[in-house]
Amino acid sequence: MSVVAMNREIRSMPTGKSKDLGKEASNKTATKAEKDRRWQSILTRDKEADGSFFYSVKTTGVYCRPSCAARLARPENVAFHETIEHAQAAGFRPCKRCKPDGVSLTEQHKEVIEDVCRFIESSEEEPSLQELANRATMSTYHLHRLFKSITGLTPKAYAQAHRAKRMRDELARAGSVTEAMFEAGFNSSSRFYEKTNSVLGMTPTDFRKGGAKVEIRFAVAECSLGSILVAQSDRGICAILLGDEPDELAREMQDRFPNASFRGGDREFEKLVAKVVSFVETPGIGLDLPLDVRGTAFQQRVWQALRKVPAGKTVSYSELAALIGSPKAVRAVAGACAANKLAVAIPCHRVVRNDGDISGYRWGVERKRALLKREANA
User: Fold this and answer.
1) Which residue of 56, 117, 245, 327 could cross-link 51, Cys pair, CB 3.0 to 4.6 Å?
2) pLDDT of amino acid 326
3) Residues with catalytic annotation?
4) Which residues contact 113 (CB under 8 A, 6 or more apart)?
5) pLDDT band at 218 (very low <50, low <70, confident <90, very high)
6) CA 298 to mean position of chain CA atoms
7) How many C-beta atoms surround the C-beta of residue 83 within 10 A?
8) The most confident of 1-15, 20-34, 82-96, 206-220, by mean pLDDT
9) Phi then psi dihedrals of residue 15, to 5 deg
């Protein structure tokens, strides 16, 4: 039944009955809006959600950003829109207060930081904080604070993560270690070897040989989600894998460094595995263990943001993209989640679709659903 037909039917009813039916319809609308996870962003006027969606108010005929400072609308009058075009097609005009069809200050800041990130990535040598501040036309203090709030990393950490990616790429591509050194932007072999050992956890030559001489301890245990493999390098936990078959998990681990030396864990390592299993079963206890996290600069930004999402809460892919200052990089964010090798420790299971539905998960949707249910009840 259309809204017009419903209103006509309500008007034809006795006054008391029409009021009750109208109130019931209004309550259903309010319940739908309040159950939508985006309603919380409106209640808190969350600036980080700006750009990920818009909302309209049927009593005023306008659409707004989630952070709009105007008087809060009643939930039964609110509708959500993925884009400005959707809101306008529904007949709503932009709010004059938050100007959703313009560029917000938050978006301006994100554009500045994106430009700084591209500058870091294209520079042969790591730029100083002052050079970055000059490019962004702001103070070093303001840039440092803004950069970390948007990307989750300091400018220096971002530059180091990008340099680490260049190291891995060049070592895999170049004809020799020396060629890889210069292509990665190092003019000094001492600096190159110092950095590669800290980033790769091994010498460049061993990395090129597929992890030769590298020792990785691992063990497979059983938990309520099936089999779980925990692996540790000398830098920390480097893999937490979930699956149905222990042998498949072991092969997945060995594929990363085919020539590494793998060995079973001793009693101390078994205690560490028990901690990981306990965390899977009871997420509220937390996981305070050193992690060996290796990935591209972008992946590290995504993973850093994910580790800030508390147990019992979820974010959408678009919200996560907005959190790291790249609102248009939704597909890349999904790719970073899929590349995560540290299940639960880097909680990519807390990322859901924009409508709140559970989507794909590297280790299976049912495991994702079980983890979210367990955390919600913790």
Assistant:
1) 327
2) 79
3) 64, 348
4) 136, 146, 147, 150, 151, 325
5) confident
6) 10
7) 11
8) 82-96
9) -55, -50
Q: Please check whether residue 367 is in contact with residue 361, taking contact to mean a CB–CB distance below 8 angstroms.
A: yes
pLDDT for 92-148, tens place per residue?
999 999 889 887 777 788 889 989 988 988 887 788 999 999 999 999 999 998 888
Look up tokens 């500045």; give the residue: 112
* Torsion sign over Cα 18, 23, 28, 30: positive
- How many other CB atoms sit within 10 Å of the CB of residue 309? 17
For Cα atoms 350, 354, 360, give the angle at the middle one, nearest 5 degrees: 50
Residues 6+ apart with CB under 8 A from 234: 201, 215
**pLDDT of 106:** 73
Alpha carbon distance 102, 157 (integer Å): 32
Quickly count: other Cβ atoms within 10 Å of residue 204's Cβ.
24
Q: Contact 220/249 with Cβ under 8 angstroms?
A: yes
d(CA 338, CA 362): 6
- The 10 Å CB-count burial string (b at 16+, else e) for 208-225 is bbebbebebbbbbeeeeb
CA pair distance 222, 228, nearest whole angstrom = 6
d(C-alpha 286, C-alpha 203), whole Å? 33
Residue whose structure tokens are 């965390």:
279
What per-residue confidence (pLDDT) applies to 18? Answer: 46
Structure tokens at 146: 């803004």
> CA separation (Å) from 201 to 29, 154, 170, 179?
56, 22, 16, 20
Closest C-alpha among 278, 276, 250 to residue 263? 250
Question: For residue 9, which of 230, 182, 130, 18 has the smallest C-alpha distance?
Answer: 18
Q: Are 95 and 64 in contact (CB under 8 A)?
A: yes
- Would you give the DSSP letter of residue 245? -
CB-side neighbour CA atoms (13 Å) of 47: 12
- Alpha-carbon torsion (168, 169, 172, 175), positive or negative: negative
Question: What stretches of the chain adopt beta strand conformation (E)?
Answer: 54-57, 62-64, 78-81, 93-94, 215-223, 226-233, 236-243, 261-264, 315-316, 351-352
**Residues written for the chain:** 378
* CA nearest neighbour of 318 among 29, 80, 35, 156: 80
pLDDT score for 21: 44
